[in-house]
Amino acid sequence: MMSDLCRAMAELENNLTIIYDISLNEAMVLCCIGGDRVAAGEIAQTTRLKASHLSKVLRLLEDKGFLQRDLGERDKRQMYFSLTNEGTLCLTRLKQEGLPIPEFLGKLFEGS
To answer: Which of 8, 32, 62, 83 could form a disulfide with 102 if both were Cys (CB 3.0 to 4.6 A apart)?
Structure first.
């Protein structure tokens, strides 16, 4: 069962990459931020990504032009992230057009 799950997750990520040019972790971050301005710590807590990995994902999304980084107004050490127009467009497309879900994963969520 574990190998089936791994294959299905790889297929899901491959679909994301082909259709939207983002990874699964990048998609999670885009969904987490949505239309808000979100602190890095909140993103880490919501996505459950470790800080070191989240930092890489945030940088990749910034490099793609999907995220904007701002310093906190009171605490300049605090980082906040919001979607750019391009990031909002990608997230909107993902929500509207959806994503092909591998059969194995679909079966896991039947009846939920």
So the answer is: 8
